[in-house]
Amino acid sequence: MTNAINWFEIPVKNFERAKSFYATVLAVEINEIPMPDSKYGVFPYDSDNNKVGGAIMQMNGAEPSDEGVTVYLNGGDNLATPLARVEKAGGKVLIPKTDIGENGYMAHFLDTEGNKIAFHSWN
Prior knowledge:
By secondary structure, this protein is an alpha/beta fold. The chain has a single domain (7-121), classed as 2,3-Dihydroxybiphenyl 1,2-Dioxygenase, domain 1. The protein contains 2 helices and 8 strands; from the N terminus they run βαββββαβββ. It has a 4-stranded mixed beta sheet, covered by helices on one side. It has a 4-stranded mixed beta sheet with strand order 5-8-7-6, with helices on one face. α1 (15-26) runs antiparallel to α2 (80-86). The radius of gyration is 14 Å and the shape is globular. The mean pLDDT is 95.
């Protein structure tokens, strides 16, 4: 096993609002995938090389939460860059950029849907 995680999904209540939030914060395009009875948007990832990927999803039974599992998104070369976009895009920084020693840096935030999400970077 190369990665403990293969795929993740972030539940959202308002798909367009969440899509705009993540596209702004991560400076990426969220690719909408047609799904019956739901809305699904995939983050960019390298599927050809079996890399970890994920999506936002709006569907019955999928409720945003600030409790439970925390997903760490790639903060790029310096997580301060996407973190600076969080509040401008409608989210809230919970834990600012924090040095975690030899493991780099992390920060936690709430997205527009009420999910607690985090960033990790080496700088």
